[in-house]
Each structure stands twice: as C-alpha cells, then as structure tokens.
Amino acid sequence: MSQASNPAPAPDELPAAAAIKGVTYKAEDDRNHQDGVVQYDSSPPIGGAHSPIPADCTGTVYPNPIANENAVHSLEHGAVWLTYRPGLPADQVAALTRLVQGQPYVLMSPYNGLSSPISAQSWGYQLRVDSAADPRLAQFINVLRNNPQTTPEYGASCSDPPFKQNPSTPGNPIDG
Q1: Where are the domains of the chain?
Q2: Helix residue ranges, H only, the chain
Q3: Residue 65: in which H helix or E strand, if any?
Q4: Whole-angstrom distance, CA of residue 128 vs CA of residue 22
Q5: What is the pLDDT of residue 133?
Q6: pTM summary value
C-alpha cells in the first residue's frame, strides 16, 4: 500500500487521493461475484470478490453492521463506505451522519474491530481517522465518490430499496 507521504503515487493511484494525508491505496483487481462469506485481506475491505447484491448506498445510514460482501459491491459501483466503532460518542455519529445522509454513493455503518474510531473506504482506498470532525473525511468523499477514474463499474446504480429495508449482517451476506 502506498501512503500520501510517498514522493509519488503508485502507477494506478489517483494523485488527488494520494494527496490526502493518511490515505492508503492497494490495487484491487478481483471483481468477481461470489455467494457466501468472502475472506478479505483488509478490515474493513476496500475491494475484491463480493456478493452479487450491493448494499444500498444512496446516503444510507445503517444503525447496525452490514456484511462486508454487500458493502464491497457498493464500492465497486463508486460508493464511499464510512465505518465507525460501535460505541463512538453520539456527537461523532451525528457528524458522520451529516456527511452521509442524502448523499448519493455514500453509506455508513458501525463496524466491529476497527483499528481506529472511524475508517472510510472506496474501491482500493482507505483512510483511518480519530474524529468525525477531521476534514480529510470530506476530502476523501469528494475525491473518490463515484469517480470515473477509480470506480470499476462507473454509472452503476447505488439504489437497492429491498436491501435498505432488510440489510444483511456480518457473516450473512445477501446473495443473488
């Protein structure tokens, strides 16, 4: 993974993303649909094989953790997935909600076992921060959300009302 402190971005890395301090990048070439649980090499995942069903990412705020496999499919469509540790103070969750709610190609959920209080993911990219007030979160969203240079399935819909009404849970992805 390259980091923004490197002198130059990796060959496939978007320079505007590399310029955000703390962003990591890893090329993710596996875009296969796969039923069932997928083992990922990062947590939260930033790409890879995934469920054939995406999580709704129309500014959706999930109150409970969702399955990685559905969220990764949303990343493939251009979404940014904001995750936070369960137990994050309510004012922090409210600030994250303001970044997400009503915004196309963004979703948010709690995530067990995060190494930082908050983590933002898009296809191939990740940013870990300590506070919802960190301005890099908005930068990450603005640079990477539905970006035609980084989105494997640019133009694909992020709307999935049935998923939004009855979301998956970790270890139990909704498959096609």
Answers
A1: 2-6+22-165
A2: 15-18, 68-76, 90-100, 135-144, 161-165
A3: none
A4: 7
A5: 97
A6: 0.93
